[in-house]
Amino acid sequence: MESATREAASEEPEEEAPPAAADKPARRRLRRGLLLVALLVLCAVGYGLVLQRFDISEVPIEAQFGAPIDEAGLVLSLLPVAIDSTQETMQIRISVTPPPSPSGPRAAIATRDLTLRLHRDTFVEHIPIRAQQPLPELTRNFDLNDGSIRFYPVDRFSASVHLSVVEKGPGGSERALPLHVKMWEGILGFTVHGEQAAPIDPRDLNLSFSVRRTGAVKFFSITIYAAMVVLTLCALSIGSLVFIGFRKIEATLVGAMGAMVFALPALRNALPGAPPLGIRADVLVFFWAEIGAVVALSLFIAAWVRRGSRP
C-alpha cells in the first residue's frame, strides 16, 4: 500500500516556475542592452559635438595682407617657427622676397636701397636692404600677451607688429612704399591667425596675431583629463565597496589599482606641448585624481588586512 502511494506521488508532474520569475532575467538583460545602446548613442552624439566645437580637421592656410602683390614695393614672407607658451614668446622668420615678374622667377637680390622698419613690442628696428645685395632673411622673437599657460589647453595669446618700408631718395628724403605680406598661419600644435588693422599711413601695415592651440590638441588634452577622472572613479568604487563589505576581496584587483596610481602621472606626461606642472587643469583634475587613486588603494588594502583569508 505504501509503495503504491509512493509510485502515485512520483507520477505527479513537478510544479513549473512562475512565468514572472522565469522572465525576470530576460527583462534584466533587455534593460541592460537598452542602457548600453543609449550610452553608445550618447557617446557618439557627444563625440560629434566635440568634433564640431574644436574643429579638429582645421588646415592652416597662407594669408595675404597689405597692398596687392603686383603693386607692392616689397614683399615679405612671415613664417612662425617656434612658440614657447611657458615663456610667452613666439619666433617668426621674416624673409624679404622679390615681387613676382611676368617674365619668370627673379633673383633674390635687391634692386634699390630700402629700409624695412619693424616695430614690435616697445621698440623699432631698422633693417637696411642694400642694392645689388642678397635680400635679407631674419628671425625675431615676439612677446605673447593677453594669455597664460595656466589655462592649458584652452590658453590663447596675442601679439602685434607694425611694418613699413621706405626708399632712400636724394638729399636723404624718404618715400614710403606699399607693402605686401604673406603669412603661414600654422605651426606644430598651434594656429596663428593674423588680422590686419587700419594704420595711420595706408602704405604701412599693422598686423595682430591670435595664437591658440589646434582643435586636435584641445580635444586630446581634454580626453586625457577625462580619462583621469574615469580611472579615479573606478578605483574609488572598487576600494569603497570592498572596504564597506558590499563586495568580496579579490587579490587580483590590487595590481590593477596599483597600476592606476602610476598610470595617472603617465597620462599627465603624455599631454601635447608638455605644460608645466601646476596649471589649472592639474588643480581641477590631476592632483585630486592621484590622491583619489591612492586613497582607493589604501581602502582596499585596509579591507584585505581586516578581512582577508588566513593561511
Give your account of this protein's structure.
This protein has 311 residues and is of the alpha+beta class. The chain has three domains: 23-54; 62-213, Immunoglobulin-like (Sandwich), CATH 2.60.40; 214-311. The protein is built from five helices and twelve strands. Strands 4, 5, 7, 8, 10, 11 and 12 form a seven-stranded antiparallel beta sheet that branches. Strands 1-9-2-3-6 form a five-stranded mixed beta sheet, with no helix packed on it. Helix 3 packs parallel to helix 5 (280-307) and helix 4 (252-269) runs antiparallel to helix 5 (280-307).
Question: What would you say about this model in short?
Answer:
The protein has 311 residues and is an alpha+beta fold. It has helices at residues 2-11, 19-54, 215-244, 252-269, 280-307, and strands at 62-66, 74-84, 89-97, 114-120, 123-129, 137-143, 156-168, 174-177, 179-184, 186-187, 190-197, 205-213. Helix 3 (215-244) packs parallel to helix 5 (280-307).
List the topology elements.
Elements: H1 2-11, H2 19-54, E1 62-66, E2 74-84, E3 89-97, E4 114-120, E5 123-129, E6 137-143, E7 156-168, E8 174-177, E9 179-184, E10 186-187, E11 190-197, E12 205-213, H3 215-244, H4 252-269, H5 280-307
Helix pairs in contact: 2-3, 3-4, 3-5, 4-5
**What structural class do helix, strand and pairing data support?**
alpha+beta
Examine the secondary-structure arrangement and name the CATH architecture of the largest domain.
Sandwich
**DSSP E strands, number:** 12
* Rg result: 34 Å
CATH class of the largest domain: Mainly Beta
Proportion of helical residues = 25-40%
The whole-number mean of residue pLDDT values reads 84
The parts where pLDDT drops under 50 for at least 5 residues are: none
Number of helices: 5
* Separation of the first and last Cα atoms: 56 Å
Largest sheet: 7 strands, antiparallel
| SSE run | HHEEEEEEEEEEEEHHH
**Beta-strand percentage range:** 25-35%
Number of domains: 3
Coarse shape = elongated
CATH fold node name of the largest domain: Immunoglobulin-like
Keywords: Membrane, Transmembrane, Transmembrane helix
Region (Disordered): 1-24
Protein name: DUF4436 domain-containing protein
Organism: Chelatococcus reniformis
